[in-house]
Amino acid sequence: MTALVALETVSKEFGGSPSLAARIARLLGERRPPATVRAVTAVDLAVAAGEVVGLVGESGCGKSTLARVVAGLYAPSAGRMLRGGRDFAALPAPERRAERLAVQMVFQDATAALNPRLTVLDSVGEAPVAHGLVRRQEKRDYVADLLARVSLGADAMGRYPHQFSGGQRARIGIARALAVRPRMLVLDESVAALDVSIQAQVLNLFLDLRRDLGLTYLFVSHDLGVIAHVATRVAVMYLGRIVEEAPAEALFSTPAHPYTISLLAQTPRLEPGRRRYRGLPGEPPSPLAPPSGCAFHPRCLHVIDRCRVERPEPRSLGDGRRVACHRDRADFF
Amino acid sequence: MTAPVLSVAGLSVGFTQRGREHLAVEGLDLAVARGEVVGLVGESGSGKSVTGLALMGLIEAPGRVASGEILFEGRDLAGLPESELRPLRGRRLAMIFQDPMTTLNPVLRVETQIVEAITAHERVSRRAARARAREALVRVGIPAPDARLAAYPHQLSGGMRQRVAIAIALLHRPALLIADEPTTALDVTIQAQILAEVQDLCAESGTALIWITHDLAVVSGLADRLLVMYAGRVVEAGPVADVIAAPLHPYSAGLIGSAPSRNRRGAPLAQIPGLAPALDRRPPGCAFAPRCDRARADCAAPPPLVRREPDRQALCRYPLEAALA
After folding, report:
1. Is residue B211 helix, strand or coil?
2. What's the ipTM?
3. Is A153 an 8 Å CB contact of chain B?
4. Would the pTM count as exceeding 0.95?
5. How many angstroms separate the CA of residue B211 from the nearest CA in chain A?
6. How many structural domains is chain B composed of?
7. For the packed helices A139-149 and A120-130, what is the interaxial angle rounded to 10 degrees?
8. Cis peptide bond N-terminal to B62, omega within 30
9. Which pick of A320, B4, B209, B212 has the fewest CB atoms within 10 Å?
10. B143: nearest CA in chain A?
11. pLDDT in tens, A113-141
12. Which CATH architecture has domain A5-14+35-332?
């Protein structure tokens, strides 16, 4: 089966075009290379229809950048983003537009994502009318249906974003994403800012929508508890690369990368009984100055000499599992 | 048991809005012993942060401590004038915030700020103060302390800044430390480092700790006792393991049940319907009743405080144990 979305050795760099001053400095013999940040490096990832792929990692690991590449909002600096097996960048314009609509994003901060001066009716209804999915005179009914799907009343239509609670705004953001009839949603920390009881409501909504509309999700989060609950497959990122990828069950029961193992060990669990916390040493490195060899080696508890000089390529462990580590899981326990 | 470091009785904090006073915290009782860790858990607007600020004497107009006493080392802080609070704050009582920039001055070097915090309460030479500043950074696990002392806050990562704030809070080995969501903005691996360090430091200096958070999971592994707040009131209190294993209040049960890790993967989460009432729209009687599946007509009257062994209480007419019996 062809994947809905596939990334082939995708990299994304920022800060490419130098300022005037930097260009003059180069003409005068400045030899330092211009500062570019590699947010994402050589990522392979495929999302098949019906999957919920969880993308986990800490701040600055590149997970949001990757999410935007998948949604077609960023063009990769290198590599290809495929939709249904075809290169997105090379699609003829009408098909590219259709593919853009097919994958929609839901952002963390619905307050920032919604135009404060537009009513919910316009925020949700504008895109489907503009793209010719719905006729203007049908807009109201269409929006009312969408709001019902996310458990909001039709009375919400005439109101503005600031008149809603955080949980309701999140629902409006979801309704807007659904308005152009996507096959897939990219959820970038979409429940991170919500209170626990509201977060549970919105997660349940995502699960319902997936069942009712047959949606596929790329679920980006720093919260392993949330990912463990919703994902069918999980990819773990560290400093721009995917270090481990596996079916959710396998990843949480037998993690293979030392970083995944530490993440799982250090996520607070809701269990009675006092625990000793033990931090992973150090901090995530800067993408401006990535460490040599394996980017995780300065913090790794199982580092060997080889890790300092040679970067581990992702290798298959069978059963759809891949890990980028020189060492064997068996050596860690 | 020894006398508690802090004992709060009937604390209410009000905020005046359009001429009417609304209580953000209502009738809060709380005791913390030396070396004890109390987790204060609640969602946005539950009054947990206001409680922390009130204990520090940091409530500003239009808010005020409307009633109650805050007994700390034998003195009632609630009635104390600012001039007597100041020598206590930072020395006997300290607080850390979610955003360390609440504590840190962006235009001063780390060293200047720590030295200032030392000399504010003690007469020591600048040299001795500098040595202590360095020592303080080492204690909270900051690598290359000399370089960090010379740095400005913006040159440090979020985790590093929070460590500096903790180092400052613990400078004078306070009797009580109030921590308001200090790890919420941090990554998991950094959060674990800070939790480990705070655990060690409080154990070694006997500092009592009040950890305010929305995250039950964090306090479940950290605290001795747990207080659950909802709409300004403590709705449940007890030893942390007992509360999590068998909550009495339906709200605590809902919070615990809605955590993804407590549910079967992919299955619908046990959710609490609706949302918490706004400060000026709290229903009379039990504020949780409109969202509660156990509520009956008489929940419109103020709920009773039920007590259970060991040392547990809940503010509920129909606590959950009835279902077990």
Report:
1. strand
2. 0.81
3. no
4. no
5. 14
6. 1
7. 110
8. yes
9. A320
10. A282
11. 999 999 999 999 999 999 999 999 999 99
12. 3-Layer(aba) Sandwich (3.40)
